[in-house]
């Protein structure tokens, strides 16, 4: 996959939907996530969508970017029916005292996932509203590119309609070029490991 230059990434002010294409294990992934969370200042609401990661893992990554006491937090968490012994039942782990609403989906179901995300977007009362989707790589283990493309067309429209800002993680090393060619056009921008955001 080819990287966008920083000038291309920053060419539009505040795009609604950004594809964050970085190696799954890299400092750039976390840095881009935190920058995208705060691109409109301190977020009033953060909606996390977690598939292979847990809400607690997302909160740990965001600790330097947001203050949970000043930001409304909610998660749509695909649990696959289980948690490790170290993780609380709601997926918050060591963050179980953090005020956060967690909606659990036991199995990957794009229709239900889309419904729950839309509900969270519509219920968000504190702006700006930021959505972090972690990750498309994990969803691709369960669904075809074509179904995910259709799902993303609807979801990105919902994000834009509600005035929210969203970013969607994908492992830049984990897919063939065809995957990026199929999915990238759905988004307003792509930020990658070789580019700087903002």
From TrEMBL:
Name of protein: KaiC-like protein ATPase
Species: Halapricum desulfuricans
One Pfam entry name: DUF7504
Xref: InterPro entries: DUF7504
